[in-house]
Amino acid sequence: MRPPLPRLHAITDERIARRTDLDSVARALAEGGGSHLAFHARGRELTGLEHYNLAVHLSNLPSFLFVNDRLDVALAVPCAGVQLAHGSLPVDAARALNPLWWIGRSVHDPAEAEAARTEGADYLVVGPVFETASHPGRKAIGLKRLQAITTAAGELPVIAIGGIKAERVPEVRSSGAYGVAAIRALWDDADPAAAARRMREWML
Question: Is residue 77 one of the residues assigned to a domain?
Answer without folding.
Answer: yes
